[in-house]
Amino acid sequence: MKTQTLALIGMMTISTAATAAGQHATSKPASEAAKLKLAMTAGPADVTKDAAVVEMDEKGMMRPLRAGTNGWTCMLLPTSTEVALDAMCGDKAWAAWGDAYMAKKAPPTATLGVAYMLHGDHGASNTDPFAMVASETNQWVVSPPHVMLLVPDMKVLDTLPTDPHAGGPWVMWKGTPYAHVMVPLGSVPMMKGGMMPMDKKMPTEKK
Predict the structure, then answer these.
(1) How many domains does the structure of the chain reveal?
(2) Is residue 54 one of the residues assigned to a domain?
């Protein structure tokens, strides 16, 4: 269950050298080998080589692709584009955080948590932890390759901005129990109307 909840977080908050540099893939990997490669390049090789790998479908169902031995889980996540996948690798602290998130309870804050999305993502609200699509007010952000940090002391977050374009790390979902630090490894795309990059279409709720 921990891998399932962690994967759902990744949806809110791709398989060539180009995607590793921050460019998203334009099609879903078809073979098991391609899926494993994509998932295992979402984090550093010394983390992913022994990590569990799972895949989540559009209904939230999980399918194991490989067992792990080091406590990390790498996962493939469906996106609103319907033609691409996001990939994320998280540690045990993020899994515990995910359990609390799914139960809408305050997450544990005993240890630092680390997660990687070295291919970036296809978008999430910067203000609403439970938003699944962009709106005029939820500051939809498409992030470049990044690291995500959970901190034991939430007061530390007061030292960082919430603006993704301020330069350097920013706080996502500040003022909620699910606030965490986003550490971009590239430039955050400029938004049109405070939401999607100007060359992207805003995802819409499926009917």
Answers:
(1) 1
(2) yes
